[in-house]
Amino acid sequence: MDNANTDVIQGTMDMLILKMLSLEPMHGFGIGRRVEQVSRGVFKVNPGSLLTALQRMERAGWIEAEWRQTENARRAKFYKLTRTGKKQLEVETEDWARRAGAVARLMRVEG
Amino acid sequence: MALWHSLQHGLRNLLRGRQRAQDVADEVEQYFAEAETAWMERGLSPEEARRAVRREMGTMSAAREEVRTFGWENQVRAIWSDSRYAMRQLVKHPAFTWTAVLTLALGIGANAAIFTVIQSVLLAPLPYANTSRLAMLHTHWTDSGHTSTRVTGGDAVDMRAQTKNLDAVSLYNGGNEGVQLRDHATYTNVAWVDENFAHVFDLKPIAGRLFSNAESHRAVVVSEEFARNNFGSVQAALEQVLHIESEAVVIVGVLPGGFHFPDKTEIWEAAPLKPESTSRTAFNYRAVALLRRGATFKSAQAELDALSQRLQTAYPQDNRAKLMQVIPLGEALTGNARPTLLLLWATVAIILLIACVNVTHLQLVRSMERQREIAIRKALGSNAWQVMRPVVIEGLLVALLGGVAGILLALPAVRVLVAMAPKELPRANEIHLNGWVLTFTLGIAVATALLASLLPALRAAKANAAEAMKQDAARGMEKRGARRLRDGLVIAEVAATFVLAVGAGMLLRTMTTLMKRNMGYQTRQLLVVDADNPAHAEDDYKRVLTQYTNLFTELEQMPGVVRVAGVMGLPTSEYGSNGYYRTRGGLPADAQHMPYATFTVASPGYFGTMEIPLLRGRDFDASDVYDGQFVTVISESLAKQSFGNADPIGKQIQCGLDSPKWMTVVGVVGDVRQDSPAEQPGPTLYMPMAQHPYYANQIHIVLRTEVKPLSLVNAVRAKIMQTNPEIAMKFTTMDAMVNDSITVERFRAVLLAAFAGAGLLLAMLGVYGTIEYSVAQRGFEIGIRMAFGADKSAILGGILKHAALLACLGIVLGAGASLMLTRLVTAMLVGVRPIDPISLSGASLLLILTAIVAASAPGWKAAHVNPMEALRAE
Hints:
The complex is a heterodimer of chains A (about 110) and B (about 850).
Chain A lengths: L12 H11 L2 E2 H11 L8 H14 L2 E7 L5 E7 L1 H26 L3
Antiparallel strand pairs in A: 1-3, 2-3
Helix pairs in contact in A: 1-4
Chain B lengths: L1 H14 L1 H25 L4 H12 L2 H9 L4 H20 L1 H30 L10 E8 L5 E2 L4 H9 L4 E15 L4 E9 L2 H5 L6 E2 L10 E5 H8 L2 H4 L3 E4 L2 E9 L11 E4 L15 E6 L5 H18 L7 E7 H6 L3 H32 L1 H9 L4 H37 L14 H28 L2 H6 L9 H37 L9 E7 L5 H19 L4 E8 L8 E8 L11 E7 L3 H5 L3 E4 L13 E5 H8 L8 E4 L7 E7 L14 E5 L9 E8 L7 H11 L4 E6 H7 L2 H35 L1 H9 L4 H30 L1 H4 L10 H27 L3 H6 L2
């Protein structure tokens, strides 16, 4: 399984980040680790893409950032969900459910 | 909202670039540190953890780069850094920069200057209220195609009464008049206007009031400038009395400054709404009209078409083929200037094109020098836009510099243009640089930049990295396409310049033709006094006549003066009359085409003073009195026109100047060109002042002098003041008047010649640049050839031949283009045929010489290359 694709499914990065942040405010690595853990290693995120996505979402007004100390006493940028971000998560979740359901139905079709 | 956030963040990042870079670096570092910590928690050594992270996430610097390039502000930053790079490149290549910027400055400056004039004259709305509804009424004859900018009183009354589309019609006439103030007389533009005039232009006096119809010939309104200049203030001018044409008029109101319609009018005198002349053949008036709200020029014209038809039926003689026309005022005022201005515009457009070609060529040379650099960039993975960006930015920078320099050049150029402009140029006082022109200039600068850098940029983007690395112009291994492109640009440039040179040649030849022309009289050593002796009642005119007769005798006795005479209708002057005449004993005349002549009223001695040759019979003399037999002197072509080969002396002529009396022909004189040297000599009827006193008070006094004419001005002025201080006067010379009569032709010729000169300079630069570049690039090859014994003259000859070949190809192309364009200037030529072999061959010679001269310097350099040095160059 060494060569298995661990990229996040195209177009779902924002939703995953929003979901993780809806649990609690986190810094970049925290989000990356949580995605990897919860997906049991199916998805791994690249720091470049993750931090870029965070910047984009910050600009969209979905999340807010703040520099704070981590449990390891490092200075880190913590992100938290805004009210627009919560709404966006609902929209994206609903959209994803609809599309995932459709894909599942399609894959069940026989003969 | 999202856009706002993005803008806010982007701006913040731009302003605090270092802080932001630090933040990104910190965040990435923290990310990697946490990842290493996580691995170590799983039991890896620090070294192993670092390696694991590296394997999984790549390098920190790559991540940093990825995060940092997010956001629109990074494009800005990249462009900024490219601009700084381009700036450094420009400073490092001063020859390229100067040539390109100056070339563009010339092209853009010329365009900005001419566009300023065009914008102010043709495009800017007139400075009046209701501009879009203002109209001028003209009279057009459908049979002859002739159009008069005037109307008759009779037709005007009908247009006023029988149209629904015209809200108001105002009749006016006027001109430069002597105006007597309390203590002096002055020449001022006076217009006689009716009550409707103020309504048409929506005039509101700044002091006093407007006049009413009941105050005709008794009240005037004056301009704010006239009030201030003559009375000190607007209020002081009210109730003051002026004398115009011997009528006492009182100033009842002052109009706001800046309004001077028609022409440069300072005084508007009340004239009755019902025109004094209701004839349908005397075109005594001009008419302005205001369209009714909601009416269009089309609907108004349709109504006038119908009215003209009715009038043609009602007055089959007077209104035959006569059609009233309604023309937008702006068009009516500027129509004459349009062809000249458009010609100039086309000319400067060609100049800009040449400038563009030059700059493209320069850029191309630059980009070829950079080909290796570009190839390396592409090899390192830059995309097309990233490769093109520096080239385009460099072009933009050059164009902006050129644009700014061009505007700085245009500022004085516009002043020179206005100063040179013929006085017929309408709205000249409104000409100034403004936002529109700056926008236009900026627009052409940017367009130029894109145009000039597009070719090189595209080539840069297309360049095949491996090909480009191999290719090295300095070793004579240039691609054939590159060279063909540069040659093509030079050919295009020569062709465009050729078109300009031919145009300038034809206009200059027109000018020399005009200046050498025999006017039919001697213009040198002739002082001209424009004299207006106020007269109103019959007695006044008789007194004026006596005064003038005595004055001529007194002036003739002054030292330096040879002969003196008076005339109404001096050639090239603004006064004059003309019309139909009838003969007794002459050739039969066609009733549809009555013979036509210029009417001139002159004192005895006029022909001698002007040196118009007396061919037969006698001059006027003291015996030709008002109560005696009316007499006339005719010009040679009138004699031919009406009497053929028969002797005209003693024949009878009647004309419509002022008296129905038959006049006996007593003399025949040579023809003169009446309006300007461009005019053909034509038939003229001369009548003695004594028999036409109503045309003898506002005259020109001509003095043939032995000394410089203008040196007599003070003495003559004193003498005239002594005769009658109320005579308003202006001084000039016949030479100056004739000169002024061809200012339009001169304006065109001088400007086109100047532009052709500029084009020539640019073409020379272009040829020089190309040859110089190719010689420099072929140094190695030439070195080898010379090392193998090639002759110096063979090398120089080869280079010059190449330049001459390019010039010849350009000339052939240019000749084709100018034959197609020649229609544009045909109407502006006098004494030159539209396909003028002299101009064509002159321009060809000039361009071949230019090309050879431009190529000879680099050619000489090439022929004197030291082969050893050239071969060792690398």
